[in-house]
Amino acid sequence: MDNYAILGLAPGASVSDVKRAYRRLSRRYHPGINPGDRQAEALFRQITEAYETLVDVNRRQQYDVSGVVQENAHTPPFEFAGFDFSVKAYGSQAATFSELFAEALHPVPAEDRGTPQPGADLHASLTLSFLDAMNGVEQQVMITRQVPCGPCRGSGQVRVSDAKCAACHGAGRIRWARGHMVFTKDCSACGGSGLERHRRCGVCAGHGRAVRSEAVTVRIPAGVPDGAQLRVPERGHAGSHGARPGDLYVHVKVQPHPVLHRDRHDLHMVVPIAVHEAALGARIEVPSFDGPVRLRIPPGTQGGQRFRVSGRGVPLRDGERGDLWIEARLTLPSIMDERSKELMKEFARLNPADVRTGLERPVRGPDTLS
Hints:
- By secondary structure, this protein is α+β, with helices and mostly antiparallel strands.
- Helix content is 22%, strand content 29%.
- The chain contains 8 helices and 16 strands.
- The strands form 6 sheets. Strands 11-12-16-15 form a 4-stranded mixed β-sheet. Strands 1-6-5 form a 3-stranded antiparallel β-sheet, with helices on one face.
């Protein structure tokens, strides 16, 4: 029979119309109001089926297309078990018909404790020296994380010998009342079997996880920059019910170097050059994080002049490297003896050129010192 016709509605009726028609018909044909009337009981069953189909959007759409609705095998059957007038109902317990049938036909689902949930991520920090960051190392970080519980293997339950279910006392069904009306349904704790085969794990209280501190080895790639974040897969908190663990994220802080300075993929340093080396030229050794570098100083090198050494900078992921930039800084002896002073004077007489040629003279103004 047409579900719309059973409720006295036209196709396209709103959900409010469906609920209103159901309340009106349930007051008239409910078995509790018509005891012993099998015709009213059968009609009420059809009214209930029509209501369940049309009030649910997905079921209604399926019915409108195919004319039938596939029943959900996972929906526990609810049965009306009669009235109980041994206890008076007051306040919220004295429910209306619409509240009673809505609770019976569409109960609030219990918490699903078996749904897998991925584990949360963890965060840690690690401080490295400049040379360790350039060369790459392996270091350990201590973390405290949730791991799968050993006794229950992360399930939250342990196997026990078959015993009477404590929730339903072995009946396989439980009863509950709303007002004076009593309903029954299959026991969710034992699945209607009346036997208890599993029990909540006492070690993890049913959560399936325990807490443990451990050292995790983190591989630091060569050339890691300051402020980088490294990911260690599946070293975060354990997931529940077999879900994937979270990840561990390590934040890297690189300490500064007293000589070398990093700029993206290149390294920079300032090297002192003696006056005679700058004037005559020389070959010097310059320290680097992976060994000394031989550098040729050409004759006539000026202070601030920069030299590039290709391939001696920051290591890159593709095996290439940046460059090393060296800035020359002319350095005079802190103390000169008389002989050195005479030689410098002789040098000045032999090279009388003005090294400041080309500088503009300052314009004399009110703030210029006389």
